[in-house]
Amino acid sequence: MLLRPGGPLAHGAFPSPSETMARSPDETVFMRRALSLCERGRGRVAPNPPVGAVVVRDGRVVGRGWHRALGAPHAEVEALAQAGQRARGATLYCTLEPCDHHGRTPPCTEAVIAAGIRRCVIALRDPHRIVDGRGLHRLRAAGVRCEVGMLADEVSQVMRGYLLAQTERRPRVTWKVAMTLDGRIADAHGRSQWITGSEARRRGHVLRATADAILIGLGTLRADDPRLTARLPDRSVPQPLRVLCDSQLRAPLSARLFSRALARHTVVACARDASHARERALRARGVEVWRLAASRGHVSPRAVARALAAAGRHEVLLEGGATLGAAWLRAGLIDDLALFVAPRILGDGLAWCAPIGTTLATAPEGRVQRVERLGEDTMLTLTLARR
């Protein structure tokens, strides 16, 4: 789904007519370079947004940067530092409006002005309440020519989790499923390891590495006892927050998520009436417990989504089974699907999606964004239309 002005994420992010100016089509090359840099920060900078920037002088890129880690220099500052004196009189292309406030780092606007940037081309305004036009105002007041909107649709796709967190107080949620050709995620005995091959499983770990949080339910924990870690050759990859939905805190304390190595980056979301003794036992291990509203006898998906957004977790990978995924789908909280399909047929077993109470006329529809071969398996990436 492409996000366009007037759509659900338009407020604050897309430019007003007075902010845009005519530009050469060749300039989009530079914004696409900034966008590719922006993607490198996914999964590494929460609760900040991933941002990329390039400095261009006389048609050549003289500085590049991206937000590498929380507390590290922002993309604009990194690109300006690389450009040095060549930034004076140059154009800065960045995926998001430069900040104009003191946080973990000084305002980016100060660095842009001090570097002597003549023109700043920005894909999206930052809808965050402490930014939202302040950066543009500061730059223009200093004589920097600012233009907004270049490749706004493409950039908004990469930054959609951050934009949703600011505009709807929820994260972007991708439901990851490994299934057979007939849509089974486990055989009749509940066995699911392994439906897909090693290449597909490696890609699954890449998805984990670019997520801010991984979400499962009690059924998945009991069936697989997962670690929910991103296991890649690059050991510097930050690990996502591990979140278990367990309405009555029934998960066994022997689960690997509650081990000494994993507990301090694990959250259990439960209903408000869950056992306080069980909560104390979890907290003693270092596990955080979120008491939230319930819905249909389970922790409310909307309450969990709000809590994740409030915690700065903008990109969420749902790895739960059919019941949890269907609940989030019914709540309208599934944005994307990552379907790993193995070329085998079970004919029996557990279906990947539980009933969601829909008909052919009202069924959620998706748009296929990518089809990819991974060894003998196929990965389908889809975006669901908003209802």
Can you tag this structure with a few keywords?
single chain, 387 residues, alpha/beta, 9-stranded mixed β-sheet, 5-stranded mixed β-sheet, 26% helix, disordered N terminus
Description:
This protein starts with 27 loop residues before the first helix and ends with a strand. Strand 1 and strand 2 form a beta hairpin. The N terminus is likely disordered. The radius of gyration is 22 Å and the shape is globular. Strands 11-10-9-8-14-6-15-18-17 form a nine-stranded mixed beta sheet, with helices on both faces. Strands 2-1-3-4-5 form a five-stranded mixed beta sheet, sandwiched between helices. The protein is of the alpha/beta class.
Summarize this entry quickly.
By secondary structure, the chain is an alpha/beta fold. The protein has helices at residues 28-39, 75-83, 108-115, 134-141, 152-158, 160-167, 198-209, 218-224, 276-284, 301-310, 322-330, and strands at 52-57, 60-66, 91-96, 119-124, 145-148, 172-180, 184-186, 213-217, 241-245, 266-271, 288-292, 294-295, 298-299, 315-318, 336-342, 350-351, 366-374, 377-384.
